[in-house]
Fold this sequence. Notes:
- The protein contains 16 helices and 18 strands.
- It is an alpha/beta fold.
- It folds into 2 domains: 23-211 and 348-488, Rossmann fold (3-Layer(aba) Sandwich), CATH 3.40.50; 213-347, no CATH class.
- Strands 1, 2, 3, 6, 7, 9, 10, 15, 16, 17 and 18 form an 11-stranded mixed sheet that branches.
- Helix 3 (142-159) packs across helix 4 and helix 4 crosses helix 13.
- The protein is globular.
- The two termini are 38 Å apart.
Amino acid sequence: MYKIILLISLSLTLFLAHSAPENAAITQLPGFNGTLPSKHYAGYVTIDANHGKKMYYYFVLSERNPSQDPVVLWLNGGPGCSSFDGFVYEHGPFNFEKTGGFPKLHLNPYTWTKVSNVIYLDSPAGVGMSYSENKTDYVTRDTQTALDSHKFLLEWFKLYPEFLSNPFFIAGESYAGVYVPTLSYEVVKGLDAGDKPTLNFKGYMVGNGVTDEVFDGNALVPFAHGMGLISDELYQEVTTECEGNYYEPTNSDCESKLAKVDGDVDGINIYDILEPCYHGDSSSKIRLGTPNLPASFRILGETERPLPVRTRMFGRAWPFRAPVKPGYVPSWPELLNSEENVPCTDDEVATIWLNNEAVRKAIHADPISVAGNWELCTDKIKYYSDAGSMIPYHKNLTARGYRALIFSGDHDMCVPFTGSQAWTRSLGYEVIDEWRKWLVDGQVSGFIQGYDKNLTFLTVKGSGHTVPEYKPKEALVFYSRWLEGKTI
């Protein structure tokens, strides 16, 4: 028995000692005083040596059992937003305290690394700490982003082969509602083709995710009415004039009614209707051209005429009419013609910390002179939407048995739960867990509906767009239960 215990202990020691490239280990972090509760690694994976295209990752081992716990890839959206948003503000290992000077870091009791190994990836190149020496790579699209992220994963697991047997999941929020299913599809396609190394892919999760132009585009009016933001009379008028088609008005009467809805919701925090805007009433500054409700994303090449284009920073859909390239997704700075931050958000702590050269050295990120300043969301990339609706991707993946959790903060007006609830229902899968409440500490924390094919839709009561930021305890509970295959 003693020999068995000794062998197990030796195996664990060897695992931890060889769990990553030695030069990727993080030994200290400016702003944090104490011992890290688990091992951290970070650095670059070169996915195109000829172009010098480098993808930056920050890898946090599970505090529980890193050799057995799932490996989860986390992606923030935009497109153009860094996954350090998730690390700093949502479910990373630290809570960042604003001090008026350099931030102080404290351990986060609700970090997702309590129960899983998490890879935070800045994607595509040009976002966050990821970059390319060939600036043509900053013109990209959905399909190329998925290919690049898949190449990253294959190369990353070559560096960390001891995690190949761990269950692997892909997760993200907002515009990662496109990133996650398209990347999952590439992973599965690679498995079918025999790509090496072989990833132990089990499923994916998407929070308040952009999905489909019809469902997303038609989501806001019912949401605004249900939340008491517009009157019964206006709701009836806009429903009648638009005939239920709010995302692409076909007549002037419809547009006129939508303009009234737009005016009523103007000034409300789009990411959480219960919260004030950090920058004040900045939402009105992004109304350009003909007022109109959010139009969902367009398919590349759909038409050559000027389009009402959805700006997708964080998934938000405030449209405008301008002569833009078909399928092109402008960034917030482009829309505002300024360097203003994403409306209603506070990125001060992350900006200070991640643009400190001592921090960049500690986390193995290239200096500002090489990789550029870190921004929560950048206008450095030019992004095109070419993947279309995500519904066929979800159908393909769930039909093959991969698990899917679609969760929504129910007070998000950016990508309202009404759209996610509708498109998950539209798949036509049998309901096997009828709409019910789910609890944390005996309190109702949201509602859930389970479908055949391992598809689950879940709401988080009182949460905004970034669920782990608004409801960290509840988020860790459903995340933990879902990863373990337990009833939520």
